[in-house]
Design a protein that fits this description.
Blueprint (H helix, E strand, L loop, with lengths): L11 H16 L9 H17 L18 H27 L8 H19 L7 H32 L1 H14 L15 H13 L9 E2 L4 E3 L2 E3 L4 E2 L3 H5 L17 E2 L2 E2 L18 H18 E4 L26 E4 L2
Antiparallel strand pairs: 1-4, 2-3, 5-6, 7-8
Helix pairs in contact: 1-5, 2-3, 3-5, 5-6, 5-9
Bound molecules: protoporphyrin IX containing FE (HEM).
């Protein structure tokens, strides 16, 4: 960002690469150079896969959608998923051949070790388990794509809103300067002392939820919710967007106001803040995502002020309607170095 020397640039690739590298270090035990063409192709494929889920909106969750295999977008989506799965399989095989059970490097190694224990247990006690080679591929795949697109999109929205609301940006920078100062970088330990940036991150997620219609779930038995009976095996989708914009929960829900998450000078999280889903299968990456957003934004705003390019008069807040929501139009930003 510094290298652009104040000239406009799109931050998308930088955010996707840096956020993806965090999850890559957790699952693959390594990071990739931003100039690595194989890595960039993979990120573009993940991005395209998410875009393609938007083609049918919520209809993609219906059983009927699985019969529409002749549609070109469906076939392209299958190709994208196949390419990402191939990458994950290659990584797993490379790990299998270099595994040191006494020195696990990452999630794949831990899974391989769990698989070995499972094999032993099965022989001794005939225990059946979900730990197996097929589930390993899907688990790593889900964490890889789930940990890349959502958080990177959150940062893209963050910069857009910070350009539109410079007073919020200034207030965050004042908080950073007060708590951290100019002689070191912000770190996670500073989080409890920085309620305003935390509140801003929550407000960004509320006003523009990146995953407003989370994953489809099945009811495992007949049930009743608020007088509605829902039979076993019904597909259920929680509409998180309706919670985020509900006037009975939030005052003026369309107004961007981080102050709504501050009470008596402290950040507080209301029960109605359902950005990471609801129930037992709530997002498993929530803790990591919150850390990533705090560390990224606090460090960026420690170093830079984001400004609209001079020729941009109006910023667009239109979003893609896919499994995750990204800015519909690619935008550019400028960074001004802080002293
Ligand atoms: C701002 C960032 C993120 C948002 C807004 C977000 C949101 C969500 C939501 C709404 C769900 C569906 C939960 C439900 O069905 O109730 C979900 C599931 C999931 N997320 Fe995230 N997520 C984020 C970051 C991450 C990260 C960093 C990871 C990886 C570590 C991750 C991995 C997953 C996985 C694997 C699932 C599927 C869980 C399951 O099926 O049980 N997410 N996420």
């Amino acid at each position: 960002m510094r290298d652009h020397k104040g000239a406009p640039f799109s931050p998308t690739l930088l955010f996707t690469s840096s956020i993806s590298n965090i999850i890559c270090s957790v699952i693959f035990g390594k990071t990739f150079e931003y100039s690595d063409s194989k890595f960039q192709k993979l990120l573009a494929t993940i991005n395209r896969a998410f875009e393609l889920t938007g083609a049918g909106g919520p209809l993609v969750f219906l059983p009927l959608a699985q019969k529409l295999t002749c549609l070109p977008s469906y076939r392209e989506l299958q190709r994208c998923i196949g390419d990402i799965l191939d990458f994950v399989r290659e990584e797993i095989e490379a790990h299998r051949s270099t595994l040191d059970v006494d020195d696990p490097r990452d999630l794949i190694d831990h899974y391989l070790i769990a698989e070995q224990h499972r094999n032993l247990d099965e022989k001794q006690n005939d225990i059946s388990s979900h730990i197996n080679a097929d589930n390993m591929v899907i688990t790593i795949f889900e964490i890889f794509i789930g940990g890349t697109e959502t958080t990177a999109n959150s940062l893209r929205w963050a910069v857009l809103y910070l350009m539109e609301y410079p007073e919020v940006q200034t207030k965050i920078q004042q908080e950073i300067d007060r708590v951290v100062g100019r002689n070191r970088f912000p770190r996670l330990a500073d989080r409890p002392n920085m309620p305003f940036i935390e509140a801003t991150i929550m407000e960004l997620q509320r006003i523009m939820p990146v995953s407003p219609l989370p994953l489809a779930r099945y009811t495992s038995s007949d049930t009743e919710i608020q007088g509605y009976s829902i039979p076993k095996d019904t597909i259920v989708l929680a509409n998180l967007m309706s919670v985020c914009k509900d006037e009975s929960l939030w005052e003026k829900p369309d107004v961007f106001d981080p102050g709504r998450f501050i009470k008596d000078g402290k950040m507080f999280q209301p029960d109605d803040f359902l950005i990471f889903g609801a129930g037992r299968r709530v997002c498993l990456g929530e803790g990591l995502a919150r850390m990533e957003l705090f560390i990224s934004l606090s460090n960026l705003l420690h170093q830079f002020t984001f400004k609209k390019p001079e020729e941009t008069t109006i910023l667009s807040f239109k979003a893609t309607e896919a499994l995750t929501r990204a800015p519909l139009f690619e935008y550019e930003t400028r960074v001004i170095l802080r002293d």
